């Protein structure tokens, strides 16, 4: 997820903000709503299983150029049309399936991203011979995880996300640039993405 500005003001010197409920959070989750719910219950939590990893990778790719709140509001539709992110099922999609998805207003109708989702499902199936997508991604966890205290210290890429991007591309994945892979690593808790002082920091 690309970090977005929340509806509340940043804390001192761009640090965590304290919401109306008295809880300190990362600034983009300052106000009540779907973004705060995602921050409080999911962002930065470890996930497990191939479908969970494929879902996050797919959603991060669809988010490129859009707000994350848009993706969250369409998430259930994404899960439906992509068969619960069952890699084998999506890998079997053909031109007619892609055309059908491009007519479904409940998701993001972007031809390149829809095609990439199918390509990535096929690449995920192929990656099983190298230990699978989950183990592959976790193999790029940073030895020294970041510990940002303010928004100005936040990264959007890292040597590890750049390396993961290159490695996935070699295995046939698409829409897996360094920024997208950094967002993926944050989302699935490859490292703790929360600001120091956020109540979620260290909670996973």
UniProtKB/TrEMBL annotation:
What superkingdom heads the lineage? Bacteria
UniProt keyword annotation of Metal-binding present = yes
- Do you know which Pfam families this protein is assigned to? Adenine_glyco
**Residues reported to bind Zn(2+):** 26, 39, 194, 198
Disordered: annotated segments: 1-22
Q: Name one GO biological process term.
A: base-excision repair
Q: Which InterPro entries match?
A: Adenine_glyco, DNA-3mA_glycosylase, DNA_glycosylase
Q: Which one of the record's GO molecular function terms can you name?
A: DNA-3-methyladenine glycosylase activity
Q: Which UniProt keywords apply?
A: Metal-binding, Zinc
Which residue ranges have biased composition labelled Low complexity? Answer: 1-11
Which Gene3D superfamilies has this protein been placed in?
Answer: Hypothetical protein, domain 2
Which PANTHER family does the annotation name? DNA-3-METHYLADENINE GLYCOSYLASE 1, DNA-3-METHYLADENINE GLYCOSYLASE I
- Protein known as: DNA-3-methyladenine glycosylase I
Supply the source organism for this entry: Nocardioides flavescens
């Amino acid at each position: 997820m690309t970090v977005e500005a929340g509806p509340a003001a940043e804390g001192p010197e761009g640090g965590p903000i304290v919401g109306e409920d008295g809880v300190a959070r990362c600034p983009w989750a300052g106000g009540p709503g779907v973004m705060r719910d995602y921050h409080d219950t999911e962002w930065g939590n470890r996930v497990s299983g191939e479908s969970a990893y494929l879902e996050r990778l797919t959603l991060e790719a669809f988010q490129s150029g859009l707000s994350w709140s848009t993706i969250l509001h369409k998430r259930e539709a994404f899960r439906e049309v992509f068969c619960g992110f069952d890699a084998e099922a999506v890998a079997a999609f053909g031109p007619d399936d892609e055309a059908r998805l491009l007519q479904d207003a409940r998701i993001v109708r972007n031809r390149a991203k829809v095609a990439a989702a199918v390509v990535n499902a096929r690449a995920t199936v192929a990656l099983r011979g190298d230990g699978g997508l989950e183990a592959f991604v976790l193999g790029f966890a940073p030895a020294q995880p970041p510990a940002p205290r303010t928004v100005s210290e936040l990264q959007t890429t890292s040597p590890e996300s750049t390396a993961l991007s290159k490695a996935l591309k070699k295995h046939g994945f698409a829409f897996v640039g360094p920024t997208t892979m950094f967002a993926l690593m944050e989302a699935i808790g490859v490292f703790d993405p929360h600001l120091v002082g956020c109540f979620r920091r260290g909670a996973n």
